[in-house]
Design a protein that fits this description.
This protein has 252 residues and is an alpha/beta fold. It has one domain: Aldolase class I (TIM Barrel), CATH 3.20.20. The chain has an 8-stranded parallel barrel, surrounded by 6 helices. The longest helix has 11 residues. The two termini are 18 Å apart.
């Protein structure tokens, strides 16, 4: 059985880690290099770095900062934000990323998924999907959740898998920052429709929420930000409880 993974997320804006609620009202959460160092020491399984304003500002991910964070890590490191070509991805991989995450660029030009998988292998390609419910339907959103599409979440994840993505990072915009739990019903539906790993994102507020997303949501990994950044949940305590619940996890 594959072990479940705990993944802190560094949302980066202007070189600082930030966190908001429902993708807005951002507040400072600290220096990304200091946080990365802390998380690798605490036993995080992976780290995700998302330059959340890169696409909106039409610029590339902060490669120099990626290099600084990578030097502080000895765990797998995924980087996203502003990646729209194989050359963009190559630069970040050369600067220490183990995987790249694409979102808006993949929706606008789905062939990018195929190109990245062909260039670097499926295991390097994470497709991030931001979605929210509109009139009962899960709709994909772009540009940090600011632009709705007409694309159905469940149709999109199937296409993403078909095109060669190795993993999906699904964020429920309705749950993001609320600390009311993950979108487990949607996660379970995604899990039942595809065969690649799914990272659950959006809604972590207490340890029980991680237990629920691994059991009810069938998630392969759980990503969180503010509960880790602000010390509301410690990764060692979380992992100890998951082990007690008989959930396969690597000890902290």
């Amino acid at each position: 059985m594959l072990t479940k993974r705990i993944i802190p997320c560094l949302d980066i804006k202007d070189g600082r880690t930030v966190k908001g609620i429902n993708f807005v009202n951002l507040r400072d959460a600290g220096d990304p290099v200091e946080l990365a160092t802390r998380y690798t020491q605490e036993g995080a399984d992976e780290l995700v770095f998302l330059d959340i304003s890169a696409t909106e500002q039409k610029r590339k991910t902060l490669a120099a900062l990626v290099l600084r964070v990578a030097k502080a890590l000895d765990i797998p490191f995924t980087v996203g934000g502003g990646i729209s070509s194989v050359s963009d991805a190559r630069l970040l991989l050369l600067n220490g990323a183990d995987k790249v995450s694409i979102n808006s660029a993949a929706v606008k030009r789905p062939e990018l998924i195929n190109e990245l998988a062909a260039a670097f292998g499926n295991q390097c390609v994470v497709v991030a999907v931001d979605a929210k419910q509109i009139e009962g339907e899960w709709i994909v959103h772009l540009v940090g959740g600011k632009v709705p599409t007409k694309i159905d979440l469940f149709d999109w994840v199937k296409e993403v898998e078909m095109r060669g993505a190795g993993e999906i990072l699904f964020t429920s915009m309705d749950h993001d920052g609320t600390k009311n739990g993950f979108a487990n019903e949607a996660l379970a539906k995604i899990s039942n429709s595809i065969n690649i790993p799914i990272i659950a994102s959006g809604g972590a507020g207490e340890i029980q929420h991680f237990i629920d997303t691994f059991t009810e949501g069938k998630a392969d990994a759980a990503l969180a930000a503010s509960v880790f950044h602000f010390g509301e949940i410690s990764i060692p305590a979380l992992k100890n409880q998951l082990i007690k619940e008989k959930i396969a996890i690597r000890p902290a």
